[in-house]
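hey can u check if this looks right to u? its 161 residues, i copy pasted from the old doc so theres a chance i mangled smth
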Amino acid sequence: MTSDEDEYGQANDDRPLRGYLMLMGTYGMLVGALSLLLRRRKTVSQLGIGDLALVAVATHKLSRVLTKDSITSPLRAPFVSYVESAGAGEVNERVRVGGAAHAVGELLLCPLCLDVWIATGFVGAYAFAPRATRMAASVLTVSAASNALHFVWDALKKVDE
């Protein structure tokens, strides 16, 4: 570790800077590869405002599913430990591994962090296969709306009590 990393770690609880660099490098390579593929295509579908909104909601929903849902906990299990139920089918977990794997664990627990990766995937997929991407995004968006309606319904039931 360099002296800058030592100082940063001492001040901030030994953050896995090398792991973060690995993740940023991986993301950069994926974006670079996607850019090269798009450059070679003669036609690329552009996102309209409606599709942009659809993909935004779908990105939100998929990031919640991947980072918080009980059902997807086996995907996170190599990096995290269960802490407690968070209600509504979600769980609270904590990172349980060190080094580069710690950074991966943090990514898998952070819906805001994972959003960037998912949004990149959606926008890239839309450029290659807009109809299929729109369908997948529609399913996630309808699911997000349904979840919101469940919460509204539950809140209305409590008002009657």
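The mean pLDDT is 91.
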